[in-house]
Recover the amino acids of this structure.
């Protein structure tokens, strides 16, 4: 059986029969050492009486208006119950963390689902009056992350070679050219449906 601790009026000087004007705790409260339990009022001043133990308040033995002196019983404390209270507090804290994690996961999933699909093509830009230029090197592959102005293919004409830069940043989903192909500028690129991955446009090389 758990031993109950008693909180009593400590030495308050040469006064006695001091009036209780306020009770600062209630049954079920968890108090620490030095937590104020009640307020007394003498002819000269008022004072808070602190707890000498830690525990859960199980029974209060004084009322407002009572007269008390040194050694008068204030209340009973259960020292074992504090461990249960601390355990419940930790469990509640963990539950809150788990709930927050689940909410964040739901919000992130919802954000991805609500992302609008983008349709992006990269085509040969205007390179003058030349046509049917050889592709001599493909500089990216499916799955690559590319940035704006990053070279994606190399072309070779009669007079020079040139790198074709990307006009967008994103993930390459499909490469529609290969080394040896002949390419010309396309003013109206064909549309292809793509899916965006984590807000990053995916790229077709045409």
């Amino acid at each position: 059986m758990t031993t109950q601790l008693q909180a009593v009026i400590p030495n308050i000087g040469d006064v006695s029969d001091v009036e209780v004007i306020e009770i600062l705790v209630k049954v079920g409260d968890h108090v620490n050492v030095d937590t104020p339990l009640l307020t007394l009022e003498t002819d000269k001043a008022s004072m808070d009486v602190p707890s000498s133990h830690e525990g859960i308040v199980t029974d209060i033995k004084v009322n407002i208006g009572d007269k008390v002196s040194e050694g008068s019983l204030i209340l009973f404390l259960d020292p074992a119950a504090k461990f249960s209270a601390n355990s419940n507090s930790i469990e509640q804290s963990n539950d809150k963390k788990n709930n927050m994690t689940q909410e964040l996961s739901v919000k992130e999933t919802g954000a991805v689902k609500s992302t609008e699909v983008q349709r992006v093509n990269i085509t040969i830009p205007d390179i003058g009056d030349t046509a049917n230029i050889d592709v001599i090197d493909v500089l990216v592959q499916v799955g690559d992350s590319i940035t704006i102005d990053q070279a994606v293919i190399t072309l070779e004409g009669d007079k020079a070679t040139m790198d074709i830069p990307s006009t967008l940043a994103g993930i390459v989903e499909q490469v529609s050219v290969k080394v040896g192909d002949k390419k010309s500028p396309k003013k109206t690129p064909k549309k292809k449906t793509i899916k965006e991955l984590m807000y990053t446009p995916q790229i077709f090389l045409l």
